[in-house]
Input
Amino acid sequence: MCRFVAADLHRRDRIVRLGDPRKVRRREGLRALSLGGVENLADTALAESGAQVADRLGRPLRSLRLSLIDMCNLRCNYCMPADEYIWLPREDILTVDEICRLVGLFTECGVDKVRLTGGEPLMRRELVQIVERLAANPRISDLSLTTNAVQLGRRAESLKAAGLGRVTVSLDTLRRDRFRQLTRRDQLDQVIEGIEAARRAGFEGLKINTVIMRGYNDDELIDLLEFGKRTRSEVRFIEYMDVGGATQWSMDRVVSRGEMLEKLEARYGAIERLSANGSAPADRYVLGDGTVFGVIASTTEPFCRTCDRSRVTADGLWFLCLYASSGIDLRTPLREAAPPEEIVSLIADAWAGRVDRGAEERRGLSQRGPLYQIEDLRKDPHREMHTRGG
Ligand SMILES: C[S@@+](CC[C@H](N)C(=O)[O-])C[C@H]1O[C@@H](n2cnc3c(N)ncnc32)[C@H](O)[C@@H]1O
Ligand code: SF4
Output
């Protein structure tokens, strides 16, 4: 019997038929593999080839963002503005075994960077166990965590011991009143303690991600950079994006990279741009005193052309683009115990057909407002940034 996995339905050819690997292998898209090929993967215990899958724009499948849980202990108003949320059914959430198996299959297709996110990943009870198991996969060269850090203080050490490589903390303000207003929680002290704890635990290359919004924190660029210097963290300023729960988004509230750099130059003098680093989203800059910081111009200068990222939700839906309207169900084949090579074929095939350039397409719109209104988000929680994973 044929089983179907409904893929991103913009295009008919993304419907992949499971259960007939020969047919799958014949599919045109699989020829886009730049090394090895899925035949090799399927025929040779998968792992031998270390194949790299490229999409239709030549972008490799390398970086996976894995949402471990859709729940969060903050309510940032650009992400979770509503009073109530419908959470993913608990029974749908991937188990630890399913997560590790799925990530293993992605690494067979070339993924070597895995970022754990959410919702708030520190709320996932088995986080340390997940880190430990993923860290044991030799194909993963970069295992990182994006967190609001509220609970990092008490878990930083065990995460380091479990093999977590890097930590990025999201922090948008250093002012208690603003933090409370933005997140609807009074937990700035815990976040700062979390950052200190990560440093004490020995995490190198700490990053602080800050979404800059006009009229909210665009007067804190310098304070945040100075905070980064004190905590030996690299601050990355992110342009406000019209994704998921950003129902209040408007172009007027976006502070562009150019404007951010102008403000910083007015205070620090000439700023030098460092050379670009492949698919990394941040442009990196250095101040005269050697302080390095980044700017992610995801709204005004999107980086779709080099985007090697995709996202898996906590319930196993795979999104090829942050802006994609639907995802590919990987939980069903996992739970139905599909042979690994079938799931690898499914992944490779879908990636080989990828043409997504969501952020660039949004930039091309003449009239631009929020991507979704609250009522649209209620229809499908997978549209939420806290479900899809940032
Ligand atoms: C969805 S959160 C999940 C991980 C964790 N809870 C955290 O906040 O770091 C991941 C990242 O997405 C970012 N994000 C959410 N909504 C955004 C928006 N509208 N524009 C830009 N970044 C956004 C957050 O600032 C955060 O850095
Ligand atoms: S998921 Fe992250 S960005 Fe969204 S509300 Fe929670 S802490 Fe804020």
The chain has one domain: 12-388. The CA atoms of residues 244 and 384 lie 4 Å apart.
